[in-house]
Design goal:
It is built from two helices and no strands. By secondary structure, it is mainly alpha-helical. It has one domain. The protein starts with 59 loop residues before the first helix and ends in a 7-residue tail after the last helix.
Length: 89
């Protein structure tokens, strides 16, 4: 399994993401942090679901939802779970 965790501090910068998940204004197109790109999720976006989505004290609800979505994605894709691990570079 491959994972990426990207943590930022003061401003959004999605310039490193090279998949078509942005709207015409350059914002991430998502439903509660789930994008149209399979396996790509966001958390901590302003107003992702509620006012507290971008605040450490309240992001837990969004985190639980995204964890559920990841689990569902992994369960629905057994071939990925059975794949051999990629050698570290």
């Amino acid at each position: 399994m491959r994972s990426v965790i990207w943590a930022t501090g003061f401003r959004l910068d999605h310039s490193w993401i090279d998949v078509p998940i942005f709207d015409d204004a350059g914002r991430v197109a998502h439903q509660r942090g789930v994008t149209a790109s399979p396996g790509l999720y966001f958390i901590g976006l302003p107003w992702q679901q509620t006012r507290g989505s971008a605040l450490l004290g309240f992001v837990k609800d969004d985190a639980a939802y995204i964890a559920d979505q990841i689990n569902t994605f992994q369960t629905d894709r057994p071939a990925l779970a059975a794949a051999k691990p990629v050698a570290a570079r």
